[in-house]
Amino acid sequence: MTSSTTIFSAKKIHTMNSYQPVATHVAVRDGRILGVGSLDELRYWGDYTLDEIFADKILVPGFVEAHCHAMNGSVWENTYVGYFDRTDLNGRLWPGIKTLDGVVERLIEIEHTLDDPEETLVAWGFDPIYFADGVRMNLEHLDQVSRERRILVQHSNGHLLNANRKVLELAGIDSTTDVEGVMKDADGNPTGELGEMAAQFMAYKVTDVRRFDGINSNDLWIFAKTATNVGVTTATDLHARVQDQNIQSYVEVTKNADYPLRLVPAAGALTMSIQDGPSHVAQLKQHNNDKLYLGLCKIMTDGSIQGFTGRLKWPGYINGKPNGIWNLPPQTLTEMVEAYHAAGLQMHMHTNGDEASELMINAIETALHKNPRPDHRHTLTHCQMADEAQFRRMAQLGICSNLFTNHIYYWGDQHYSLTMGPDRATRMDACGTAKRLGVPYTIHSDAPVTPLDPLFTAWCAVNRQTASGRVLGPSERIEVHDALRAITLGAAFTLHLDHLVGSIEPGKFADFAVLEGDPTDVPAETLKDIAVWGTVVDGIPRPASQHSN
Amino acid sequence: MNEFQSSTLPFTVLGGFLGSGKTTLLNRLLNLTTQTRYAVLVNDFGELNIDEHLIARHDGETIALANGCMCCSMADGFVSALTTVMDRADQFDQMVVEASGVSNPRRIMDIAKLDPGLSPNGVIVLVDAPQFLNQLTDSMIKDAVLTQVKEADILLISKANLTDQSTVDAVRETLDKQHSDCTLLINDQVDFDPRPLFDSIPMASSSTEKDMALVDTKATSDHGHGHTHDQFHSCVLQHSKPLDRNTFESWATALPPSVIRGKGVISFTESPHQQWIWQKVGRTYRLEHSSITPERSSKVVLIATEKMPTDTDPKIYGPFSTQ
To answer: Is B115 on the interface with A (CB under 8 A)?
Structure first.
């Protein structure tokens, strides 16, 4: 086939490429970047077609999200009832609901649209922690929605669930039920709020709600749609079950030229035996193509900080709650790290609390002594509470960090007053320290836990502003340019993909985020408000859904 | 189905920290069982090393054994494994869940308290005799180890033969402090038979004669007393008239910790036409309505360590003493 060259002109191109940080034109051939510079400079490549579709736009490298999940599109099958504004996969904005009555109203609205009385009404993103009066949802609230239909309201923290009277009846949960996690009112009657596995297991058992224990092609297509809407061109599915059916779905979608996303699924190591897991993940690499990168592994260590299940070093939670939980015994987690490392694989380790970070740093150090490997790029993901000494060790050991800066906005106020206390809350998600100490870092959303939107995530790292407006840890703020690097080349580095994506330079995939404004030319407080036109993947423009509405 | 069984599947949780011997114990259970068909949810096939001759077939996440038992791996998640077993509940007599080394086994048992298809059959927690005291000095795991101890119905000090007597004594003393009213057993034998720890106790009745092989009791009189191999004793108590409920419950509450399990069919004077199923695991017991035809008589079996006082002790025979 004769290769043709397309040159895109732009108002400005931020390349993230140090020898040529800005440009006005980029030449694309065969889906790859041929050259970057001015039109005059690019003429040396010969004949070209000039495409001026982006003449008034800003091009940056396609954003790389190194910690999100492929169900980010499919969560919209259910009703959003969160406190904060959220944009769905079609680009429709769902305003945040600020009161419990408001949540009930929205549920009533949705209930009226359901024809099949047997269909369970599922809502997600609910978070009463933000309601000023501390009010909790109970059965009477959901009675207003329906007593006949089964209703489940999932909390945003993933640990709690509100069920309505119908679900409780079917699940056999009443005033005589005596298990942990079934919240009761002063009279001893269940309120419908369910914590812990057993009660939630029963609630799901008597409904027909899909559990996200696998992904299909449709999930992946709508996941890609949510990515395009916010400028993401490479994204992880950072805890994948790697059975054949899932692998088939990854392969099928990524082989389609119209699929607008490079996928990096990370195999959940806790779903496999230590004996079989490493070789299984290694052989998955045979399925890889230009848009599919299997081979990464995910290790889950502790829980979450706002759920008080993150593992903390002394002095622990400021409200005196007991220390959090391990997903496996520390010794087993250490053995797991050694096994996957010895197999030559790369790991991203979920560590929220500083004790979890410590365990993983120790484990990597031990693994490196046994099997020295330069440039392993094992990454602590979340890495929310790591202290300076830990960052120094990470720098020495070549460990990367992927910091959960969206937490600063969404839960920063709670970390300040309830979990960590003012002093340690200021060091959460310490981009400034990572940069200063030379720890390679990126930042993430953990979508759908918080919204997928790298410009917002960058805004969090730059401003460190909580939902109430407090600046949490001003000395950990980074510059806009650093944040842009973190969501492009920084993330690509932690995925071992920085030779393919993350900057606009010759030889890399022609993947761009197309912006309506220049991040370096707006006040830092408005970074998150820059509109995204869409993306370019493999040199093909892919407009965001919000433009086709 | 014998007179003590209901349509629910007895559900036992086996807890204990990494290395405490859960896998070894389960493997022995699966090797020794002849009558009871166990469905066992295990953390990892890789470690279970079931004898080849026992394995009938491998099928994805499950291994079917020739003796009717099944192992189901939880690699795909606990809920998925649980669902697999519940879908074929009628093929099994018991379900046993091997809790992960760090989990709180009581939270798993909560499922059996809620699910009408399951009945709680005890939380057994293994304590690693050589390692336990070291574990309590490790801040990363101390809390998980202590939580397991506090949530147990039955504590079994395992691997006692691998350490010295003073260590075992120190472990026992510590456990007494942490959970003083818990039934505590010590395993210092390589050929330990764990079946009595798990089994809902079969009764000497015509329909279940074969099950009695397990408790090996010869008793047919009011107070039977037999030996379950060497480590456990059993004892059958009967009464031909309804019992006073308060007297019965006082007796049941005051049974010494050496009594590990108890099960029986009881009628009470307050409602002589109604029968109750009584089931005790460790220090807790439950009384539930029974749907079987009332016999106006009561019969229980106790399984205990060798420390159980003889059945002529009023603490043991209690309200069953008079005819």
So the answer is: yes
